[in-house]
Design a protein that fits this description.
By secondary structure, the chain is α+β, with helices and mostly antiparallel strands. It is built from four helices and eleven strands; from the N terminus they run E-E-E-H-E-E-H-E-E-E-H-E-H-E-E.
Length: about 190
């Protein structure tokens, strides 16, 4: 079951919510902290307070951390930023991953998505569940016609996530980081 409301998504095991500016700033200062996060109006229908104390462990947000400084500057400047969300496990209220877009949709309605789970949370289906719900949310938007994603050929876990969430392989190409697969899912 997936409950969706902009920008809140609830899946069987997760809340997918816009990453608060305060959380971005706090993560740049400390590795392990708790923060009050708005889980959305539907959270209360799931037996959870709308605003809950969420644990952000040291391995959150993984590879996305180097971009947090620039992201914080854009947010504080009031500019439009890409849709990026924190994945919160419902049972533990722990931030277990990130899912988001590299930018806003282009003129043709295409947006690129990226996702990651904390190292200690991998191989549990969280990326498939939360990432799939996030992509469904994107494709339900009137300004999005297509969602694309890329992963390394050698990243079997990401390949499985993209296959399970209904993406179609478009191409394989060489990149400075290695051989990349480019995937697409259309509305």
């Amino acid at each position: 079951m997936v409950h969706v409301g902009e920008p809140y998504i609830i899946t069987r095991r997760t809340f997918v919510v816009r990453t608060p500016t305060e959380v971005i700033a706090r993560r740049l200062e400390v590795d392990d902290f708790y923060a009050d996060v708005d889980l959305g109006p539907a959270a209360e229908t799931q037996g959870v307070e709308r605003v809950a104390s969420v644990h952000f462990a040291p391995d959150w947000p993984g590879d996305a951390l180097p971009g947090f400084g620039d992201w914080l500057e854009r947010r504080r400047a009031g500019g439009r930023d890409a849709w990026v969300a924190t994945v919160v496990e419902r049972e533990t209220l722990e931030a277990v991953g990130q899912v988001g877009c590299t930018g806003l949709p282009d003129g043709g309605g295409t947006v690129e998505v990226r996702y990651a789970t904390n190292v200690g949370q991998r191989d549990r289906g969280i990326a498939t569940e939360a990432g799939g719900a996030f992509v469904a949310w994107l494709l339900a938007r009137p300004d999005v016609n297509s969602v694309v994603a890329e992963c390394l050929v050698t990243n079997a876990a990401s390949v499985r996530v993209l296959e399970k969430t209904g993406f179609t392989l478009l191409e394989e190409r060489e990149d400075e980081g290695g051989r990349l697969l480019r995937w697409e899912k259309r509305s």
